């Protein structure tokens, strides 16, 4: 079932979303803002269905061979902040980044306090961007995620205070909206 679900996500969802996203972005000058936003949403679904579909196929095949592989995606687009997103998105990569880049770097910079954590996050995701591709767009992507994670750490206390005062449903909706808009961007 997991292999079939992965194939469905890849062939039916991702590949069909790719047709629409590519059509829009291949001629982006000819479309208005709402169409470009629609293209970004289709690309967001495409990239998730691609990655999680391949992961589901690998997990299913490994089970057939007697191996257990951890779940690699846990509904990342339902995350309420960027830290939660990275706990749910491509978990094997996130864990590797945490264990082999962020943790050693943050231990090395622990004397810097909060600045050391921020620098560690930024450097980790800058390197993650370079790992994805040697193109400035990936470096910018990594820098943006590093900055967003740093902001998440710096603003944690303030957000906790706001959460206590706000209506839980409204707070969660706003948190989810901000996170999802950032991810789509």
Summarize the structure.
The chain has 185 residues and is mainly α. The protein has helices at residues 2-26, 33-64, 82-88, 91-108, 114-132, 136-154, 156-165, 168-184.
Helices and strands, in order, run as HHHHHHHH
Mean pLDDT rating? 95
Q: What oligomeric assembly is this protein in? A: single chain
Overall spatial form = globular
Termini distance? 33 Å
Topology summary:
Layout: H1 2-26, H2 33-64, H3 82-88, H4 91-108, H5 114-132, H6 136-154, H7 156-165, H8 168-184
Helix pairs in contact: 1-2, 4-5, 5-6
Provide an overview of this structure.
- With 185 residues, this protein is mainly alpha-helical.
- Helices cover 79% and strands 0% of the residues.
- The chain has eight helices and no strands.
- Helix 4 crosses helix 5.
- The radius of gyration is 18 Å and the shape is globular.
- The two termini are 33 Å apart.
């Amino acid at each position: 079932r997991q292999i079939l679900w992965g194939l469905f996500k890849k062939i039916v969802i991702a590949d069909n979303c790719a047709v629409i996203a590519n059509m829009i972005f291949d001629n982006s000058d000819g479309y208005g803002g709402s169409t470009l936003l629609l293209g970004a949403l289709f690309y967001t679904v495409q990239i998730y269905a691609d990655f999680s579909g391949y992961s589901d196929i690998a997990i299913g095949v490994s089970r057939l061979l007697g191996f257990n592989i951890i779940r690699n995606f846990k509904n990342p687009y339902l995350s309420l902040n960027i830290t939660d997103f990275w706990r749910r998105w491509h978990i094997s990569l996130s864990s590797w980044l945490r264990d082999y880049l962020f943790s050693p770097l943050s231990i090395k910079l622990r004397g810097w306090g909060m600045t050391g954590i921020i620098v560690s996050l930024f450097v980790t995701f800058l390197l993650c961007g370079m790992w994805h591709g040697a193109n400035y767009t990936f470096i910018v992507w990594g820098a943006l995620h590093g900055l967003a994670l740093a902001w998440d750490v710096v603003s944690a206390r303030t957000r906790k205070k706001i959460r206590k005062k706000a209506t839980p449903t409204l707070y969660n909706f706003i948190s989810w909206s901000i996170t999802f808009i950032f991810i789509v961007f």
